[in-house]
Amino acid sequence: MSRARGARGVADSSGRVRPTIALLMNNVVGDYQSEVRAGVERAAQAQDVNLLIAFAFGELLAPGGKEGAAWNDLYRLIGAEMVDGIIIASSTLCHHVGIEATRAFCRSYAPLPVCSIGMAVEGVPSLMIDNALGSELSVAHMADDHGRRRIAYISGPANNEEAQLRARAHREALSTRSIPLDERLFAFGEFSIDSGRRAMSEILSRGVELDAVAAANDRMALGAIEQLKAQGLRVPEDVLVCGFDDVGVARFAKPSLTTVRQPTKRLGELALETVVRMVAGEAAPELRLVEVDLTRRESCGCGHEGRASRWPSDLAEPRGPRSSAGARAALELSLKRAVTVPAGSLEGWAGALLSALEAELAGEAGRFLRALEALLDVARREGVLLEQFQAVISLLRAALYRPIEREGDAAVNEALEPIWHAARILVGSASVHTEGEQRLRVELASVELSYGSRGFSTCLSLPVLRSMLAEELPRMQFSRVAVSLFDNPQRTMMRSFFLMEEGREVEPPPARFPARHLAPPGFLSGAGRWSAIAFPVASGEVEKFGVAVLDSRANEMIYDALRLQLGAAMQGAALHREVVRQVELRERLEQEKVREESRVAARIQTSLVPERLDVEGLELSAIMKPAAEVGGDYYDVIATPGGGWLGIGGVAGRGLAAGLILLMIQSMVSVMARSGLAESPRGILIALNAAVYKNVRTRMERDEHATLLLLRYERGGRVTFAGAHEGLLVCSARTGRCARIPGAGGLIGAQPAIDALTRDDELVLEDGDVLVLYSGGVIEARDAHGEPFGPARLCAAIEAAQAAPVDVIRDRILGEIEGWCSSPDDDITLVVARYRAPA
Questions:
Q1: d(CA 389, CA 426)
Q2: What is the pTM of this model?
């Protein structure tokens, strides 16, 4: 009996209500995720069912609380009210929360039909590749075919079930061959290129002999190759390398990667078919294993696509496709084996191509090339790797080649060569064209994201954000979009924030609706089949604003980037509301004494001081001492992966207005830097200036402006900087001397645009170098005779303490300033950083 009900759709002309199936995964970006999604989407179209793809970056919350388990807001909203069955890409979630938590998550959707991909879950139909077979094929090839005995292994995360299965099978394959297990040859990775590089470095650092490496996925294998090369080892001459998965980048690496190919798209197709059968009341097996095979390439020494281009052994004397029925069948089978195609696509292609070749040989000129061109076009649309058809041409050429034994053999071979040559050109051209199309799509998506990212990052109100969505989303190829925000603290109700139909913004309905519906009534229903992607609108793991649902035809990278941009924009709007609240506070305080206003301003200024000074590779110390009459100094230290951001500046003015402008600057710089969308200090300064100018001049009706020097620090020592402030000082560890380096930029908020004035400059720090950022109050502090402290005295103070800890350098500078001027008229702000190069 079908579970489909009318709440999820409208009956078609036959009275059937189309089922809706959900696919839950950690992201839509990634080789594995893309393949799974493609397989599920293909099957959903074939089965004529609606598809809802939900990703939340694996942000599952651990079980707990009175209700037993509390899941991520988006995942917990999906249930029987909106879908008839659920596919869970468990292998993409388990390394976020662990195996048992993921299994509990899968079971939590009962009694809905559920299918797990990549992890066996008791009581839930599960699909997995034969991981044991894959590891056996990898070891067998390196040990049996190449005679290698010292095979290192890079495993996936310890809390990932597929990683555990592959590692266990690797050990068993070694044991079966009586190859001693050396734990020094084993290391863990995290399924990324960087982790593969680190794991390989860890193994090599143990001083252990090795002649081959197997990795639990391709990206770790590619990282291992990079590390082996870095340490002077050649692949495959010195060390063989084998991966697992056969992702796209494996084919284009240098050397190309030998790997265990898993039919990921087929897993997605089977999962959708399984859930559809369960929705219809049919039973499904609890566990189904899908076979894998080995693709031999250059990293094991077997050369390019060695798996495919072999003449069948039962055709001892190839003469042509018509030589016998058995020979033709064997040739057709060899052609099929040469090309990996998704299940259910390109049916009968090998036989049709052979028939076209027979027609060509019978005198129908051009028939073969036309058939090949049509086949390549269909294969391209089905996502088949077109360069595999080069092996098909090789097989056919071998089949029709005639040894020079009798008169006419040489002429036949010579007559066929132009056909093979033209066929290879055709395959090569189609392959290059397809790769170019894919690259163009990625580049276009990147361009659209770059246009939108700056605007999203500086959206300071919800109306502005709504206008930005209406302008940018159609350019990103979206036609149907619903962004809805939670409307109560329990996050059980929503209200529509933005709605788009057929590429145009429409007025959202005013009424609230249950959050479990994900979108306003009618958006996820209708007579036609639909496919949509949903993701949380959030900032980090704490601020949950709502849910976005979009049609699924855009480039995959756009969805994750848009998730970050929307979250950053919502957070920016929330910060802006706080700024507005502070402005309103200013208006109420205008009638109070200046002392009270200064006290509030001081609290704003000091509250912006970062609580922690923690950036990898930098020893940091900082201080800000407000003057008796509060000024407008600002500094910030923001840690990011692989480096961080440092900023220092000040508002030209005093009191509460200066504090509010500082709050704007700090919040916007923080959002842009932490979101990962910022490209350079110049880009942030330009976007910041446009927003501050509008806010200060139009909304606050003030004319204050600010100086700001912004630095982007990278762990390797490179510092990119821009902005108009006092510049920066670098005291060299080698020479012990200071150098003052000015920045290039315009004043923030003084004019509508500062693009022409602002420039990124770079410097590279060496180990032990000291970097000092300072405010104008440092060098402008005056003694009793009115003489300023000046840059020369500042440099002398730094050079005198250059080898001391950064706290000592900071205090040495402060002590000399206080000795020079007992009561400065301006704020004193210092940031002292010593660079420590990686070991």
A1: 10
A2: 0.60
